[in-house]
Amino acid sequence: MESKKSNSTINPQNGKTSNGKQSNGKSNKASMQSSQLMELFEDQLKDIYWAEKALLKAIPKMVKNATSEELVDALKSHLSETENQVSRLEQVFTVIGKKATAKKCEAMEGLIKEAGEIMESCEEGSMRDAGIISAAQKVEHYEIATYGTLRQFAETLGLTEAAKLLEETLKEERAADEKLTVVATSAINVEAAHEQV
């Protein structure tokens, strides 16, 4: 007599199967580790890993084109943070038992290209500085959205250590965005508004 196979699914929220029985925690975790969400999590990690490495080349160009001392300091500070963020992502890959691999991020490539075009088209001085801040904040907002999503994925998958690492970077990205806003509103935007075309 053949034994009937169970078609029950596991609810990751309460660890119970669809037939109401408590699932074995280990098998529940193992099923999540090989789930579609895990695949998406890895894919998005590779994407932001490429993006952060690309920023290590792009930020120095912004520094070179900026004239405001405050802006230069903010960009240099974030460059240092970005180096740490790359290392932190490598730690996340280690936590999930995968090799750190980059996959081209089309969105970040577009944002970096736009930043280059802004720097070329704007006159040197406060106008270009305002343009650099605009481009940098678009980058920050993309990163905030990405790290927020990745942290949530990690939490759902039960990857506590990975979630903590991603949360740390998310806080840094939010702080960098706020710092750029302060630099812009304290002087640069006002100066650019008074400059004649």
**What's the level 1 CATH class?**
Mainly Alpha
Could you give me the name of the CATH homologous superfamily? Answer: Ferritin, core subunit, four-helix bundle
Strand share of the residues? under 5%
Considering DSSP H and I runs of 4 or more, what fraction of the residues is helical? over 70%
Task: Count the E strands.
Answer: 0
Radius of gyration: 22 Å
* Distance between the ends: 87 Å
Number of helices: 6
Mean pLDDT across residues:
86
The general outline is elongated
Q: How many domains make up the 3D coordinates?
A: 1
Structural class: mainly alpha
Low-confidence spans: pLDDT under 50, at least 5 residues? 1-25
The biggest beta sheet is recorded as: none
Q: The CATH topology, please?
A: Ferritin
What features would you describe in this structure?
The chain is mainly alpha-helical and 197 residues long. It has one domain (35-183): Ferritin (Up-down Bundle). The protein is 75% helix and 0% strand. It has six helices and no strands. It has helices spanning 25-33, 36-65, 69-95, 106-121, 126-156, 160-194. Helix 2 packs antiparallel against helix 3 (69-95), helix 2 packs parallel to helix 4 and helix 2 (36-65) packs antiparallel against helix 5. It is elongated and about 55 Å long. The chain starts with 24 loop residues before the first helix and ends with a helix. The model is unreliable at 1-25 (pLDDT under 50).
Summarize the structure.
This protein has helices at residues 25-33, 36-65, 69-95, 106-121, 126-156, 160-194. It is mostly helical.
